[in-house]
Design goal:
Layout (H helix, E strand, L loop, with lengths): L11 E14 L1 E8 L2 E12 L6 E7 L6 E7 L1 E10 L3 E7 L11 E12 L1 H4 L8 E6 L9 H9 L2 E5 L19 H10 L6 E5 L2 H5 L21 H15 L4 E5 L8 H20 L3 E2 L31 H17 L2
Parallel strand pairs: 9-10, 9-11, 11-12, 12-13
Antiparallel strand pairs: 1-8, 2-7, 3-6, 3-8, 4-5, 4-7
């Protein structure tokens, strides 16, 4: 739990949309102009015929570079969710299920729907309110709706860019040139005109799994001197590029946020963790202990947080696991390791 007040305690600026009842078949789009800010969606009840999940998805369409912000509402009575709009919105779409799909024939009914905007001045009291986060990573961090979404919600921060890619490594993968390494992902941030306040680069599990050569530090400022086929070289290239192109951003590194704990994993990845720590120290970049994120597959309470339930090796986190990981990284961001 956080010592600060939650958003629900903040002053409400105004209700920006309300409807007594909305029936949705497949999905329904509603025109609504919303400025940048933090909002809450609330409904008295939400029911759906979709049997594949227990949520309905809400898309907020911005019209800026094709970006769509989205969130999910649990079905049931008296449900709500808080979210940030980075670019504002020109309309929103209510889906009958968890996916934007009209062909399923699913329907949903929402009673007492309201969208509320919070007071920006009061939110400004929070240290990370409005701060933009960019994420570099692998499959554990790929996608705007994974742990980084929960982290930003907890911090009242903004997800700026997520350039993580499944299979990504600190190092170049010659067999899969379509998968950007950490250095290439850093370049993507520049190409997309990102302007983050914080950049989190969490990778390593794919380097470890493929037993990539760790290498050693090269005392040079020239990226051409770094061997992108070694872990140390890949980390140096990434951090060198980030610092030169985002001199005002806070950069933090970490190992892939596995959110799991088993002896063979820790033993195997330890040299890679130490490499990230060592290179980060040379670049005066903070290393964040993200390996387990306070989760353990050895604890029954967390056994349903992975795609391989009850397996000690866990696999990728599921939605519940990403929520735990996001809250764990938010705590580390606020209070340190």
């Amino acid at each position: 739990s956080f010592p600060t007040r939650r958003s629900s305690d903040l002053a409400i600026e105004k209700e920006v949309y309300s409807a007594e009842s909305i029936s949705v078949s497949g999905y329904s789009q509603i025109t609504l102009s919303l400025p940048v800010g933090r909002y809450m969606i609330h409904c008295d009840s939400l029911t759906s015929t979709d049997t594949d999940g227990d949520k309905c998805q809400i898309y907020f369409i911005t019209g800026v570079n094709g970006i769509i912000d989205r969130t999910y509402l649990d079905r049931g009575s008296d449900v709500s969710i808080e979210f940030d709009l980075l670019y504002g919105a020109t309309s929103f779409v209510i889906c009958a299920g968890e996916e934007l799909n009209a062909s399923t024939g699913d329907t949903a009914t929402i009673e007492g729907l309201s969208i509320i905007k919070f007071n920006d001045r009061e939110l400004a009291m929070y240290p990370f309110w409005g701060k933009k986060f960019a994420i570099i990573g692998d499959s554990f961090s790929a996608g705007r709706w994974m742990w980084s979404s929960t982290m930003c919600q907890e911090l009242h921060a903004i997800q700026d860019e997520v350039v993580g890619e499944s299979g990504a490594r600190w190092t170049v993968n010659d067999d899969r040139p379509d998968i950007p390494c950490a250095y290439a992902q850093a370049q993507l941030l520049v190409q997309r005109n990102a302007n983050p306040d914080y950049i989190y680069a969490f990778l390593g599990t794919n380097d470890c799994g493929n037993r990539i050569t760790i290498g050693e530090l090269v005392k040079s400022r020239d990226i051409a001197d770094f061997d992108l086929h070694t872990v140390c070289g890949g980390i140096q290239a990434c951090l060198n590029y980030l610092q030169n192109n985002f001199p005002n951003a806070v950069i933090r590194t970490g190992y892939t946020p596995n959110g799991k704990f088993y002896a063979s994993s820790l033993q195997d990845c330890e040299p890679y963790v130490e490499a990230i720590k060592s290179i980060s120290e040379w670049y005066a970049v903070e290393y964040m202990d993200t390996l387990t994120c306070d989760l353990s597959t050895l604890s029954a309470v967390y056994s349903d947080c992975w795609e391989l339930p009850n397996a000690i090796t866990g696999g990728h986190p599921n939605a519940k696991g990403h929520e735990y990981i996001g809250k764990g990284i938010a705590r580390k961001t606020l209070f340190g390791d």
